Q: What sequence folds into this?
């Protein structure tokens, strides 16, 4: 509702720029309110993502502790495996490079993400990589 009102007012502003100074001040206040709202949304999103990262860190640490306790794996082995995965894209930068899209094994067309069947030929797509992004 408010977004539509802002859009309508902003559209009017662009067509009636010759209006009096009070109108310009009103539009500036509306712009400020809209910017404040967007900043609040972004801040909320960042807070949510930080919580998700913290949960993932706890889960990862717990899994590593279980693995170490039940096997003979060491921290050094883990560090080396992390390094190997990081270097898959040729750069040791703490990031995993974007992967190229897969092609349909039947028709060779590029597959759409999150589809169970090829949109071109209908072939069933079975993903074997559980870490596919």
A:
């Amino acid at each position: 509702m408010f977004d539509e009102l802002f859009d309508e007012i902003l559209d009017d502003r662009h067509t009636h720029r010759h209006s009096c100074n009070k109108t310009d001040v009103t539009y500036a206040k509306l712009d400020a309110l809209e910017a404040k709202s967007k900043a609040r949304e972004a801040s909320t999103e960042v807070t949510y993502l930080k919580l998700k990262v913290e949960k993932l860190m706890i889960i990862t640490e717990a899994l590593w502790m279980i693995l170490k306790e039940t096997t003979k794996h060491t921290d050094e082995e883990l560090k080396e495996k992390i390094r190997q995965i990081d270097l898959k894209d040729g750069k040791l930068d703490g990031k995993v490079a974007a992967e190229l899209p897969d092609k349909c094994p039947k028709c060779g067309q590029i597959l759409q993400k999150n589809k169970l069947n090829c949109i071109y030929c209908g072939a069933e797509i079975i993903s074997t990589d559980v870490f596919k992004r």
Remarks:
- The chain has a mean pLDDT of 85.
- The helical segments are 2-15, 21-70, 75-86.
- The chain is about 55% helix and 0% strand.
